[in-house]
Amino acid sequence: MKLTIKTALIFCLFFLLGGMTININAQRTEDPKEAKRRLKEEKKREKEELKQYKKMKPEQIKALKTGFDRLSTDLNQCAATKDSLNRRIADMEGKAMMQDSALKQMEMELASAKEKAAKASEISEAMAVNKENAPLNKGLVFAVQLGAYRNFSLTTPKKGISTDSNDGMNKYLLGAFANLRLAEAFKKEVQVMGIKDAWIVAFHNGKRITLEQAKTMSGK
Fold this sequence. Notes:
This protein is α+β, with helices and mostly antiparallel strands. It is built from five helices and five strands, in the order αααβββαββα.
């Protein structure tokens, strides 16, 4: 009975440890004589290995098998770790692409804001809108807004440009009119001069209100 168990363990170990060697060159073109010689050497080596296994005690064979199983587990863990790292790398690359896209968007926004600020300054000087402006903080006033930016702020004041930054956004305004019709006319002139997306905003005693509220207050 002991011999049967030992023999079974020997054959199991023989197969697990690769006693029956797989020929990785089987698909390659090989000289028949060379192939015959190689196969003969492999069989001889396999017989020698089998003899060595037969001489081993069952405890030794079990220990080798345990080591083989442990090695297989380690290899599987390494493969799992590699897959996890690959996923993390892919995730980091995705985040980097998103950040790069956001950065480019910010750069475009800054470039647009600087261009509008330069045009607004030219418009202000050319039309001298600051000479007869109504104060933004007194009564009902209409102005032309050039844009609203979170990541841009004028480093130096520009002639004729007002700023409204009470909600975390930097909003830049041109002109200040007590009459909506004058504000509409000025908005069209600003758009003709290059700031196509300019629009009208309203204030009452310095507080921003909607155009609908302003029209109601002005009776229009």
